[in-house]
Amino acid sequence: MTVLCCAAGAGLALYGITRAWAVEVTTRPGLPDLTTARTGADLAPWVVGLALVALAGGGALLATRGTARRGLGALLALTGAAVVAGAVGGRTGADAGAAGAGGTLWPVVCVLGGLLVVAGGWRALRHGHEWPSMGARYERRPATATPPPANEDERVDTRTAWDALDRGDDPTAP
To answer: What is the SS3 assignment for the chain?
Structure first.
């Protein structure tokens, strides 16, 4: 649930930051009006990077365990808080102009995304060390010493060779 919370929050923040937060209309006599749309990424460009860090961190929660997972939770909480601060700071410096409701809606969506990341990071910080971790199937185990065959020309039993491969041992290694 925490991973989904972080991923959804990062997705909301990315979506909200890429929408038009301000639209400036400049009237020019004798020419058509000049319309300039400014997205949240124009106003606070670092929020995009922070949202991507939150997305990657949410996925990394699955691969970590123990203290590393708790540290990642703290990093996610700080990242989410920075997304919120960036969205609020970017919005306060811009006049919505002709953006209408989108000038308020998209910054709020970005802030909600940041708050979801904060909630997910806080949960991982508090309870992440208690969660189960990935299996150790793909972790490297120390090699066990197998005695060499008495006779080098001796044929290897195929069943034994396949069992050794299943354990991760190389039956052909000397």
So the answer is: CHHHHHHHHHHHHHHHHCCEEEEEEECCCCCCCEEEEEEHHHHCCHHHHHHHHHHHHHHHHHHCCHHHHHHHHHHHHHHHHHHHHHHHHHHHCCCCECCCCHHHHHHHHHHHHHHHHHHHHHHHHHHHHHCCCCCHHHCCCCCCCCCCCCCCCCCCCHHHHHHHHHHCCCCCCC
**What pTM did the predictor assign?**
0.69
- Which has the closest alpha carbon to 25: 101, 95, 88, 104? 95
Half-sphere exposure (Cβ direction) of 51: Cα atoms closer than 13 Å: 30
Q: Which two tokens stand for residue 167?
A: 């354990």
CA distance 46 to 64: 26
Is residue 83 within 8 Å of residue 110, measured between CB atoms?
yes
Identify which of 85, 72, 69, 58 has the alpha carbon closest to the alpha carbon of residue 1. 58
Tell me the pLDDT tens digit for each residue of 1-42. 888 999 999 999 999 998 887 877 778 888 887 777 788 888
